[in-house]
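Table S2 (text version). Query chain:
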Amino acid sequence: MTSWKGRNVFVTGASGLLGAHSVRELLDRGAHVTVLLRDWVPNSLLVKEGLLSRANAVRGELEDLELLVRALNEHEIDTVLHLGAQTIVGTASRSPLSTFESNIRGTWNVLEAARENARLVRCVVVASSDKAYGEHERLPYTEDAPLQGRFPYDVSKSCTDLIALSYFHTYRLPVAITRCGNLYGGGDLNYNRLIPGTIRSLLENQRPIVRSDGSFVRDYFYVQDAVAAYLDLAGAMHGSDGARFHGQAFNFGTETPLSVLELVERIARAVGRADLPPVIQNQASHEIPKQYLDCAKARAWLGWKPRWTLEQALAETVAWYRAHLAG
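Corresponding structure-token output:
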């Protein structure tokens, strides 16, 4: 395991689910963490768990290139985890321009700031998504599948991915890309997402809402496994064979896809409220019916595999929301 003690790590999207868990793990491993903070979210893990008080905070937005250049330079950053993005599919459909600004412009700004600080930055990991692949008849996705997003969020992630690859091929920036399944875990306050929304409804004695017809298939990926994947990849990039990982993309997921209704049933069992069947609205649009990942490359290159079963991860997640909603 790569030592993170003393490393200077810059994390975008630190107040989000993956960002906060990543910051906590990096701090616990002895890294010096600097976060980019746009909004003050008092109920976020970053604030409630006191993580922000243990890190440096740069206030601003991904759209501000000069700010990013200054932050990487003044904090002498050697590792960048670019996790910041507008991640809600429905929000992207309602407001594509702000999503493109955050996800596309924000990505090229982070990469350009790293290029301008090339003497310092040795590793950039960019969060793409399985949504970057768009819709394909052949499943599961492998890393060589074309990036052909069609809807606003999917397109923003296809562009994120391609821009990152462009910075590697053109400038030899030490960048690698992650494409993960749907993340979940304690600390996600976006209750319009399926897992936190379903858990909250069940804990409040209400029937959960399913906006689709329930048949959509996804790879649901626990946040603790995602943090391990990111740090394993970044650690490999700092290793003696690190250049081998530059310009590479890696799928990370469980390789056990579930339909929405199957997942809701598992959540209901974890909560102990199988007596509350979901309300099927069948109103979802601009979403791909089936998406799931082949993670053979991550296993072969990194020796990586998920450490949590779905049952274990849902039990931990439900326990977090039970405590959180109880105040």
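Notes on Table S2: The chain is about 40% helix and 15% strand. The radius of gyration is 19 Å.
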